[in-house]
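Please fill in the sequence for the structure shown.

STRUCTURE ENCODING:
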């Protein structure tokens, strides 16, 4: 598809052969003010469309936080060996980086490799991470902009959050738009639940689908298990023609505890 079908255009005309990295992926995002990086709580995305990581890659079908594959020791190493060297080098080059730095990591045992950097929040990681933030986000972002992040408190709750993405039929290939979405209000009224709209639009009194990833249903809980259950309870209230979502968001974290 990439080379012959040119689904990514010119990018598919050249191949880079790299070492295969085995392991479990996790995302670590950090607030940065040019010199200081403050790590957010860890999270894990689910990139494939179907359960058990089957099918093609997507923008992300769900996320949970924390990701137990990332230990406390690893977080310290990620700050020291990944985030800070990037900030120091960017500053040395005269282009200090202020904003969100996202490191996509492949973790194997106690070791990790950086797969990618993004200069933004992750989607859907953001929907699982930010509900756990206790400090006002605006205070943190202002501290980033004004270069005083070192003195800014960034407090997280000790609970968990899970986001389940609901997508249109056919996604990540061609998908249908304009399907009426039912149950949004009921789901949004649930305690500890937030319904994030991604690919939706208003059509008179109705809300209809307008994208591949349509909604991110996030629930907070004291544990990952509790947040998963609440998120799926909320998902069960929502319906539209052909909707698809993964049924195993967070399963890896639960399996780890067994
Ligand atoms: N969830 C992957 C990304 O935001 O790039």
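FILLED IN BY: designer on duty
SEQUENCE:
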């Amino acid at each position: 598809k990439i080379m012959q079908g040119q689904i990514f255009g010119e990018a598919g005309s050249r191949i880079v052969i790299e070492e295969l990295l085995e392991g479990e992926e996790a995302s670590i995002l950090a607030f940065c003010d040019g010199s200081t990086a403050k790590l957010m709580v860890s999270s894990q995305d689910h990139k494939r469309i179907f359960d058990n990581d089957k099918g093609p890659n997507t923008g992300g079908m769900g996320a949970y936080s924390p990701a137990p594959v990332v230990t406390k020791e690893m977080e310290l190493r990620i700050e020291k060996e990944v985030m800070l060297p990037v900030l120091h080098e960017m500053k040395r080059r005269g282009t200090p980086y202020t904003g969100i730095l996202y490191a996509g990591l492949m973790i194997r045992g106690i070791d990790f490799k950086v797969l990618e950097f993004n200069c933004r929040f992750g989607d859907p990681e953001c929907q699982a991470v930010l509900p756990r933030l206790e400090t006002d986000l605006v205070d943190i972002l202002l501290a980033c902009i004004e270069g005083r992040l070192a003195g800014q408190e960034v407090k997280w709750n000790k609970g968990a959050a899970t986001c389940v993405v609901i997508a249109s039929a056919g996604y990540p290939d061609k998908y249908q738009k304009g399907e009426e979405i039912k149950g949004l209000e009921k789901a949004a009224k649930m305690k500890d639940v937030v319904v994030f709209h991604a690919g939706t639009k208003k059509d008179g009194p109705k809300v209809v689908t307008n994208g591949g990833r349509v909604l991110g249903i996030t629930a907070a809980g004291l544990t990952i298990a509790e947040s998963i259950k609440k998120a799926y309870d909320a998902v069960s209230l929502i319906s539209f023609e052909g909707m698809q979502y993964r049924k195993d968001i967070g399963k890896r974290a639960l399996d780890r505890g067994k």
